[in-house]
Amino acid sequence: MLKKKLREEIRRRKRQFTREQLRERSLPIVARLLAHPRIREAETVLLYYSLPDEVDTHNMADELLRQGKTVLLPVVMPRCGMQLRRYEGRGSMREDEFHILEPTGKPFTDYAQISVAVIPGMSFDARGNRLGRGKGYYDRFLKQLPHTYKIGVCFDFQRLEQVPVGANDIPMDEVVS
Ligand SMILES: Nc1ncnc2c1ncn2[C@@H]1O[C@H](COP(=O)(O)OP(=O)(O)OP(=O)(O)O)[C@@H](O)[C@H]1O
Ligand SMILES: [Mg+2]
């Protein structure tokens, strides 16, 4: 299982940094995302609400809201895959049973409205191939968004020369790090 080995390698690289250092390193990445024409032009953006070891998107979610955009966040339903909910501000986030913050906003199902998606990953290569956490949630979900422009996001040190690709893996249109 090459993918498993690569996830271990990325986790090892992440451990070289403190949470604070990762937050600091997130700032220029988020600045690039906010300046990205696809995001500036979008009315509806699918984002993710970062975990402590991911590029920090918490302020970005608020900034997009402030700009009047519809911000969508994924919620993982262990048996039913991923669902989307509207982000309605920090006060609308609730801790789930695993202490992961999830949105309590209205479910969102009008996928055709989503012009751009910002997608986290364990790793990406230069061709946009993505390595996720290994459960296939994003791959299954992104199959339903064939017309959405997909931007993979990670820290520089998460990029690999080549990410192994399976038949179900959905590639990104671009990677920002
Ligand atoms: N569209 C799909 N239909 C059925 N099974 C899928 C689909 N996409 C992925 N899977 C399965 O999910 C499992 C995990 O896939 P993979 O190793 O590619 O995860 P990942 O892309 O790293 O993680 P994730 O997508 O959750 O971030 C694999 O067994 C894969 O075959
Ligand atoms: Mg995959």
Précis, in short:
This protein is an alpha/beta fold and 177 residues long. Helices cover 28% and strands 24% of the residues. Strands 6-3-2-1-7-10-11 form a seven-stranded mixed β-sheet.
Q: In CATH's first tier, which class applies?
A: Alpha Beta
In quaternary terms, these chains amount to: single chain
Total domain modules: 1
Radius of gyration: 15 Å
Topology:
Blueprint: H1 2-14, H2 19-35, H3 37-41, E1 44-46, H4 58-66, E2 70-77, E3 81-86, E4 93-95, E5 101-103, E6 107-108, E7 116-120, E8 123-124, E9 130-131, H5 137-142, E10 149-153, E11 174-176
Parallel strand pairs: 1-2, 1-7, 7-10, 10-11
Antiparallel strand pairs: 2-3, 3-6, 4-5, 8-9
Name a few traits of the molecule.
single chain; 177 residues; alpha/beta; Rossmann fold; 7-stranded mixed sheet; 28% helix; binds adenosine-5'-triphosphate; binds magnesium ion
